[in-house]
Known about the structure:
By secondary structure, this protein is of the alpha/beta class. The chain contains 16 helices and 14 strands.
Amino acid sequence: MKKTLTIVAALAVVLMASQAWAATVKRPEELKYPDLELTTPEYEELEFANGMIGFIIEDHEVPVVNISLLIDTGRAPEDKTGLNGFTAWTIRNGGSENWPADKINEELEFVAASVEFGGGGRGMRMGPRMSGGGRATTVSVTCLKKDLELCLDILGDLLKNPLFPEDKIELRRETILENIRRENDDPRDVAFREFRKLLYGEHPMSWRATEETINSITRDDMVSLHQNLYRPDHAIIGISGDVAKDEAVSLLNEALDGWEPGGATVEPEPELAFDLEPSVNYIYKDINQGVILIGHLGMNSRDEHRPAVQIMNFILGGGSFTSRITQKVRTDEGLAYSARSSYSADPWTYGTFIASSQTRSDATARAAMLIVDEIKKMHDEGPTEAEFENARDAYLNMHVFEYDSMSAVVGQLVLLKWQGRPLDTPERDIEAMENLTLDDIKAAAAEYLHPDGLTMLFVGDQDKFEQPLENFGQVNVIELEE
Length: 482
């Protein structure tokens, strides 16, 4: 009996406390937060006698150093597409006379460090595939402060004296060729690859490594690329972590002694006409689902309306479960787990606007119509005030986390410098987004969405679709290469 009374009394105390607590806690929509501020950490610019430039952000909280080196190696010729990534891999895995690959791997594994070369992507983070969109080679170094001299010695020798052994070249060639042979296995990979061709046509942005281009690459091609463009006057370096500026410069000067500028230049990106030619395209795959891509060319990174377009797309399809396309296709209709849109910008030409979904075959046409309807509604009417405010707040909060580490900040500085864009672009973006109005978003939707110029691509078995694709327009059938 006493135990029961004690428990009841305890529950009463907890209940009263929880009621008192609830009375003092505001509802989520009533919470107020200070204004969001994004300030790039203090950095110093670097200039080296050999022509290399860069940035350093000192951060002495933990004894770790991160280095991002970007080398503007330009585009390979179309018939050598894949050369940049092929060369970067061979430099790292072929080693040098002083630093054979096996020795590098053993030393780095022993000290838990990394020195990696990558090429073929447009940014600092490189995917595993040989993309023709790449204009740069990147090198990353991560190590404890005590091992920095060792890692820089390896880095310097690889940059200056790579061996390009034939056995490593052939080993990598076979791996790339096998990856190419398997490219048609994943219908989504097929869809995005072919969609870029539809949007960019013959422009280099659509180039991709093939068996022919990879088989045409020789050791001499790699040596020539290295001799001409792996040069410090093509390089931008970013350093962050537990190292002072003077020490970093001294160690780099020693490690890179003899790495001299060259006389070669990088060809500028060819112009790309912003054409809007609506089309309906189809690729047969023997699957029980339909992959849908709908879109058109995007925008240039220097466009002053880019922040407004980013918010607009967040509302349309980039905001996960809160976005219109996701809500309509996934939540309301239950047609697909994934339905979204992206609106990208490119610093040299145009990015892409792509709305995508993957659904069961007998709902493919329905899902596509819903996506097109949402694009038209956004273009014609724009978002509501509530959608705009929620999207702006959410996007600003997410944007901050893109710069949550010193290495991410310095990497962003390297990219902006390479692209020729203002180094304070992140701060400008935040300020621009904070000053946006609903009318700005409506204007962006009306100008940068083109519902009458959509390229549509369907991948699957159209005999299983619930409606003929001809309902969307004349169908262009794309035959995949075996």
